[in-house]
Amino acid sequence: MKEFNELIQDQMKTMEQLLYLQNEIERCQAIEQELSKLQEETKVDQIKKEINEMKKELNEIHKVFESQTDEVIRKYQGLKETPEEALTCKMYPIR
């Protein structure tokens, strides 16, 4: 009977170890899932930052483009006026 009780006690200790390890594994898996979720959120935040940076850059480029367009228009209007003035000057020279 003593041997039987010892076997039961050994088995109970083993069962206790199994339950402890099973709980630890579940706890660690929950932590792993939480960390994965946080990592995904971090990636999303990084992507949002990159998008905002690109939007700022796009706005700057858009401003440059508008400025260039205005300059092209002014230059074109100047060229349009210049040939007529040049003809007038040639036809009626200033003395």
Q: In a nutshell, what does this entry contain?
A:
The protein has 95 residues and is mostly helical. It is built from one helix and no strands.
Q: What does it look like?
A:
- This protein has 95 residues and is an all-alpha fold.
- The protein is rod-shaped.
- The chain is built from 1 helix and no strands.
- The protein has one helix at residues 2-91.
- Keywords: Coiled coil.
- It comes from Heyndrickxia oleronia.
- Residues 21-71 form a coiled coil.
- This is YgaB-like protein.
Record the SSE blueprint:
Blueprint: H1 2-91
Number of helices: 1
Rg is 41 Å
- The fraction of residues in strands falls at under 5%
Q: Class by helix and strand content? A: mainly alpha
Straight-line N-to-C gap: 137 Å
Q: Could you state the order of secondary-structure elements as H and E?
A: H
| Average pLDDT figure | 88
* Helix coverage percent: over 70%
List how many beta strands DSSP finds: 0
Protein name: YgaB-like protein
InterPro entries: YgaB
Coiled coil: 21-71
Keywords: Coiled coil
Features:
95 residues, mainly alpha, 1 helix, 95% helix, 0% strand, rod-shaped, coiled coil, YgaB
